[in-house]
Design brief:
Shape of chain A: globular
Largest interface: A-B, 11 and 17 residues
CATH superfamily of chain A: RNA polymerase II/Efflux pump adaptor protein, barrel-sandwich hybrid domain
Helix content of chain B: 10-25%
Strand content of chain B: 25-35%
Structural class of chain A: alpha+beta
Largest sheet of chain B: 6 strands, mixed
Order of helices and strands of chain A: EEEHEEEEEHEH
CATH architecture of chain A: Beta Barrel
Largest sheet of chain A: 6 strands, antiparallel
CATH class of chain A: Mainly Beta
Number of strands of chain A: 9
Strand order of the largest sheet of chain A: 1-2-3-9-8-5
Oligomer: heterodimer
Radius of gyration of chain B: 21 Å
Structural class of chain B: alpha+beta
CATH topology of chain A: OB fold (Dihydrolipoamide Acetyltransferase, E2P)
Radius of gyration of chain A: 13 Å
Distance between the termini of chain B: 41 Å
Distance between the termini of chain A: 15 Å
Strand order of the largest sheet of chain B: 11-12-13-10-4-14
Number of strands of chain B: 20
Strand content of chain A: 25-35%
Shape of chain B: globular
CATH class of the largest domain in chain B: Alpha Beta
Chain lengths: 127, 364
Amino acid sequence: MSYPDELKYSNEHEWIRVEGKIGTVGITAFAAEQVGDIVFVELPSVGDTLTATQAFGVIESVKAVSELFAPVSGTVVEVNDILGDAPETIASEPYGDGWLVKVELSDPSEVDALMDSGAYEEMIDAA
Amino acid sequence: MHKTPLDATHRALGARMIPFAGWEMPVQYARIVEEHRAVRTAAGLFDLSHMGELWVRGPGAASALDHALVTAPSRLKPGRAHYAMICAADGSVIDDLIVYRIADEEFLVVANASNREAVAAELGERLTGHAAALDDASLRTALVAIQGPRSRELLQAHCSVDLEPLKYYGILSAEVCKRPALVARTGYTGEDGFEIYLAWDDAERIWNHLLKEGSAAGLIPCGLGARDTLRLEAGMPLYGQELDRETTPFEAGLGRVVKLDKPNDFTGRSALERAATGAAKQLVGLRITGRGIARTGYPVYLPAAAEAVGRVTSGTSSPSLGHAIAMAYVPPEHAVEGTALEVGIRNDRAAAVVVPLPFYRRPS
């Protein structure tokens, strides 16, 4: 499993790619594999507010419901519409077309508290 | 925590293990949906060694079971089985069971792992005064199931007895991979299939042999995850979800299991006679037509009503049907096929419609 170097990672297995004031958020390949067959995803709407470490949506397999936790705080500016019909994209392209939401960061310093890919991989290996 | 005799085998196959009813059990080996599809199209192999195997033997075994259970095991011919329940005096369900008559004076009662001790205790008490003895063989009996349209040909290759004449809910003694076994044509998936009762120490040999020889035909190991989606599509109840100490067989749509026509008294009889005349709730199938997946415990509403009228007992995204399905308890007046309902899913309501059970029936 890969964990791209240009991303930052939360201990709840979300990643964020920061470009200017906008962060794109998704779940890691590890998390997607843990969830299993992804059959449904529920995401916030544009304009909703995310708070770091708080739940902002759910992802479901045939077996279970898992919550999604925001890696940073901010306002949702875009939601990945293709996931409504093709939630399995989260597992097949977790860092690409399987992204979840884009947020305008309210406190960019929160990103500094997240892990880099090396630290995230260590956390998974230790688990 | 109990481990089945296949514990190391499951781990070597890369299974994800979870605690279940006091046992460490494989929930999945690969993807649940793949395991589910294998059972619907080819075959799947399940380790069910956590189930409880309780033997009842003696000249009074048949009449004792007629008193202990809601069914009439005395009417079974040797080599036949039926689905049964053991109920409390208030008519609620202590467990649902399969009862096999192995010989005139010998019955095998198979209980859910979660209820094994409760069933053994109740049965032990209810056999008192009858010429019958209880033997809980659960921890020395392994159970491997092979389920799916190709299961007969795959098992036949390793079975000493012709399986073609073995009817649904029949059981026979045979050698499987040259080891003594009881082979029953029963299952919990909605497909043709077999459940193989074995000595504990023979499980690994038979599991590995069946899997190795069957893999070219599409046989794969399947965990409790696929077992749950398969039984749910087949409209089969799971104890703890559709059945519990708050529910009678009639409410669960299983009134036909209760033999009120048998002459003898049995535990729960008077409560069940009352329950037969009208239930407070009724189990229904729901097709979720709105967005989302209904899960255990979610509330069920009449459209736009504020107060819940029922609750979901089991729900998933059906791998065979491609949409979300659920079972739920609702008042009988809202249980009519075609009734529009809503399921509360977190902060939203999803539209649902009452549909007949089972959701899935195998092509005949």
